[in-house]
Design goal:
The complex is a heterodimer of chains A (305) and B (258). With 305 residues, chain A is mainly α. Chain A has one domain (7-292). Chain A has helices at 14-31, 36-46, 50-74, 80-106, 110-141, 176-192, 197-206, 212-238, 243-264, 269-292, and strands at 2-4, 11-13, 163-166, 171-174, 299-303. In chain A, a hairpin with a 4-residue loop joins strand 3 (163-166) and strand 4 (171-174). In chain A, helix 1 (14-31) packs across helix 9, helix 5 (110-141) runs antiparallel to helix 10 (269-292) and helix 6 packs antiparallel against helix 7 (197-206). Chain A is globular. Chain B folds into two domains: 2-218, Macroglobulin (MG2) domain (Immunoglobulin-like, Sandwich); 219-258, no CATH class. Chain B is built from six helices and twelve strands. Chain B has helices at 2-25, 114-117, 120-125, 144-160, 220-231, 233-257, and strands at 31-36, 40-43, 50-59, 67-73, 76-87, 90-103, 106-110, 164-167, 171-174, 178-185, 192-202, 205-218. In chain B, the strands form three sheets. A six-stranded mixed sheet of chain B has the order 2-12-11-4-7-8. Chain B has a four-stranded antiparallel sheet with strand order 1-3-10-9, with no helix packed on it. In chain B, strands 5-6 form a two-stranded antiparallel sheet. In chain B, a hairpin with a 3-residue loop joins strand 9 and strand 10. In chain B, helix 5 (220-231) packs across helix 6. The longest helix of chain B is centred in the last third of the chain and has 25 residues, at 233-257. Chain B is globular. The chains are: A mainly alpha (305), B alpha+beta (258). Chains A and B meet through strand 1, helix 3, helix 5, helix 8 and helix 9 of A and strand 5, strand 6, helix 4, helix 5 and helix 6 of B.
C-alpha cells in the first residue's frame, strides 16, 4: 500500500516505513542507543530526499527522547542544572548548524555534506564499538585482564574558569566544557538529524566525570529540547519536516523498542556491542560506496520553490 | 509573460492565417468540436495516475485526410539542473543552471509521426513535440554542447517521471470525422491548470485550433499538511514538535501501565 508524502513529495510503501521505524526501534531497544544515526541513512537509502530525512528524523527523536526522559525523571536520574547548561550550548549549536545547512543547500552541496558527515561519524563510532566489543569478547574467552586506566579525580577541565556547583552530579566544574559539548551536539543534530547521545554520553562520563546513573537521563533531557528546536528551525528555514512520515516512524519505533528491549536481555553485552558496531559499519560502507560510485545519471533536476 | 503573450499571438496569427487559407480554398469553414471526459480532477494521497478520454468531431466536406495533434501543457515552474563531477574521489554537484519556464507537465498526442504532419517551423511556433520546447536559462551556458546536455537532461528526467510524453499513435480518427485520444496524468503531477490545445491539420497546415482546460486540485490531509508547511512554516514546526511530545508522553504513560 502506497502513500504520498506531502513534504518529501515521493510515494512510499507504508509497510516499509513502519518496518524501518520498527527495525530501528528494535535496535535502539536492544542496544540502548538512540536510533537517529541509523534511521536517517535508512530513509536516504529508501529514496527520501536527505534534507527531509534529517529534519523529519529530528522530529521523531523528540517523541522517543521525551518517553525516555520521563522514565529517567521518575527514577530521579536527571541533573536539571547540568542539562540546562548542555542545552544552552545546544541552542547555540543549532543556530550555527542551521546557518551552515541553509548555506550548503543554497550552493547545492547539502546532500553530499550530509553523506560525508555520516561516513565520518558512522565510520568512527562503528569501528570503536566493534573493536571494543571484540576486545572484551576475546579478553573474556582467554581470561585476560582488561587494562583499566586509573581514574584521575581532577583533570584539565578543573583549571578552567566559571566554575559552578552541580549538586545532583556532585560536581564543582567550569561551565565551558558542557557548553562546548552541547554546541557540538546541537550542530550534529541540525545537520544529521541525530540526538547526539552517542557523543554526549561518553563526553559526560570521561570529560565531565559525571556519575553514570544521571548521565543518560540528563542527556535525554537535553535532546528533547535541542531536537524540538531543530525541528522548528528546519521547518521554518527549509520546510522539510514531513509530519506524515514522522508519525509513521514514531509509531513503528515505539513498537520496535519494546520488542528490542525484550531481546536485548537475552544477549550478552559484548556480543551486542560487536553486532551494533558491525551494523553501523555496514551502513557507513553503503553511504561511502554511493558517494564514490559513478551515478547512472550525472545530471539531476530539482524543483525550485 | 512576454514569451506567453508571444505564443498567444502566434496562436491567433496561425488561426487567422489558417482560416483565411481555408476560406480561400473552400467556402465553408472547418469546424472542430472537442470535449474531455473529466475536467476537474482531485488528487488525493492515494492518487496513482489517471487516464482521461479526449474526443471530438471534425466537420468537413473536403476529401483530404485530416490530422489531429493534441498538446497538454501544465504551468511553467522554475527548475534547477545540476551536473555532478568527480572530485576528491566522490561524485558531487559541480555546477547548476536554473531554468524559469519548464512546463511541469507536457504531453503530445498525434495520429501519425509529427514530422509527417507539420514542418519544423510550425511545430516550434506552437510548442508541438517535446524537442521543440525551449527553456529560458537565467545564466549563460558555457557552450552549445553543454546547452544540449542540460536540455536533454531535463527531457530525460521529465520523461522518466512520465511528466513529459510523446505518443504518435495516441490519436485515432474515424472516417475523417471523429477523433479520440487518451490523456495520461502520472502520479507525480502537481495541482493547477492544464491547457489542452487540439490542432486540426490538413496538408501540413494548421486549419483550426480548439482549446480546453483541465483543472487539477489537491485534496485531503496531504494538501493541508503541504499548505501549512509552506505558508506558515513556524506554526507548522511548533505543531510537529507538540505532536511528537504528546505522542512520546502518552507512550511513556502507556508503557508504564502495561
Amino acid at each position: 500500500m502506497y502513500i504520498y508524502l506531502p513534504i518529501a513529495e515521493v510515494s512510499v510503501n507504508i509497510f516499509i516505513i513502519f518496518g524501518m521505524g520498527g527495525l530501528v526501534g528494535f535496535l535502539s531497544g536492544m542496544f540502548g542507543v538512540g536510533g537517529g544515526f541509523l534511521m536517517t541513512p535508512f530513509l536516504i537509502f529508501y529514496g527520501i530526499p536527505p534534507m527531509v530525512a534529517v529534519a523529519t528524523e529530528a522530529n521523531q527523536i523528540v517523541a522517543s527522547s521525551i518517553s525516555g526522559t520521563i522514565a529517567h525523571w521518575r527514577k530521579s536520574a536527571v541533573d536539571m542544572k547540568m542539562g540546562s547548561v548542555l542545552l544552552f550550548g545546544g541552542i547555540i549549536g543549532s543556530f550555527i548548524g542551521i546557518e551552515l545547512f541553509v548555506y550548503l543547500r543554497e550552493v547545492g552541496q547539502i546532500d553530499t555534506f550530509i553523506s560525508i558527515s555520516y561516513v565520518i561519524l558512522l565510520g568512527s563510532i562503528g569501528s570503536l564499538t566493534l573493536v571494543e566489543g571484540l576486545y572484551s569478547l576475546i579478553a573474556k574467552k582467554y581470561n585476560l585482564k582488561i587494562f583499566k586506566k586509573k581514574k584521575v579525580d581532577r583533570n584539565w577541565i578543573y583549571l578552567l574558569p566559571f566554575r559552578v556547583k552541580f549538586r545532583k552530579s556532585g560536581l564543582y566544574v567550569s561551565v565551558i566544557p558542557p557548553i562546548l559539548i552541547g554546541m557540538v551536539v546541537g550542530i550534529l543534530a541540525t545537520i544529521m538529524g541525530v540526538g547526539g547521545g552517542f557523543i554526549m554520553v561518553p563526553a559526560m562520563i570521561y570529560i565531565l566525570r559525571m556519575p553514570t546513573n544521571v548521565v543518560i537521563g540528563t542527556s535525554l533531557y537535553q535532546i528533547v529540547f535541542v531536537t524540538s528546536l531543530v525541528t522548528i528551525l528546519h521547518s521554518y528555514e527549509n520546510q522539510t519536516v514531513d509530519m506524515v512520515l514522522a508519525i509513521m516512524l514514531m509509531i513503528g519505533g515505539v513498537i520496535g523498542v519494546q520488542i528490542g528491549v525484550y531481546f536485548g536481555h537475552k544477549l550478552r553485552g559484548e556480543q551486542l556491542r560487536s553486532l551494533l558496531g558491525l551494523i553501523v559499519l555496514l551502513v557507513c560502507f553503503k553511504m561511502a560506496y554511493d558517494l564514490a560510485l559513478r551515478p547512472e545519471d550525472i545530471f539531476s533536476t530539482v524543483n525550485i520553490r | 509573460m512576454i514569451k506567453l503573450d508571444m505564443f498567444r499571438y502566434y496562436y491567433k496569427l496561425t488561426l487567422i492565417l489558417g482560416l483565411l487559407f481555408s476560406m480561400a480554398t473552400e467556402v465553408h469553414s472547418d469546424e472542430l468540436i472537442s470535449d474531455i471526459s473529466d475536467k476537474n480532477i482531485s488528487i488525493e494521497s492515494q492518487f496513482n495516475g489517471k487516464e482521461l478520454l479526449l474526443y471530438g468531431s471534425i466537420e468537413t466536406q473536403g476529401k483530404i485526410q485530416s490530422d489531429i495533434v493534441i498538446t497538454v501543457i501544465g504551468a511553467d515552474h522554475p527548475l534547477s539542473v545540476r551536473k555532478k563531477d568527480r572530485k576528491y574521489a566522490m561524485w558531487i554537484n559541480d555546477y547548476s543552471y536554473n531554468y524559469s519556464n519548464v512546463p511541469f507537465y507536457y504531453s503530445v498526442y498525434s495520429n501519425r509521426p509529427l514530422e509527417n504532419i507539420l514542418d519544423a517551423k510550425q511545430m516550434k511556433e506552437n510548442r508541438i513535440g517535446v524537442n521543440n520546447l525551449s527553456f529560458i536559462n537565467r545564466s549563460e551556458l558555457r557552450s552549445e554542447d553543454e546547452k544540449l546536455d542540460f536540455f536533454e537532461a531535463i527531457l530525460r528526467h521529465k520523461k522518466a517521471d512520465r511528466l513529459f510524453s510523446e505518443d504518435t499513435n495516441g490519436v485515432t480518427i474515424k472516417n475523417n470525422k471523429l477523433y479520440k485520444s487518451n490523456i495520461y496524468l502520472p502520479p507525480g503531477i502537481k495541482e493547477g491548470r492544464l491547457k489542452v490545445n487540439i490542432f486540426l491539420i490538413r496538408d501540413g497546415n494548421i486549419i483550426n485550433i480548439d482549446y480546453l482546460n483541465i483543472y487539477l486540485n489537491k485534496r485531503g490531509a496531504g494538501k493541508i499538511v503541504y499548505d501549512i508547511a509552506h505558508k506558515k512554516p513556524l506554526i507548522y514546526g511548533i505543531i510537529s514538535v507538540l505532536f511528537a511530545l504528546l505522542l512520546g508522553w502518552s507512550m511513556a504513560v502507556i508503557v508504564r501501565y502495561i
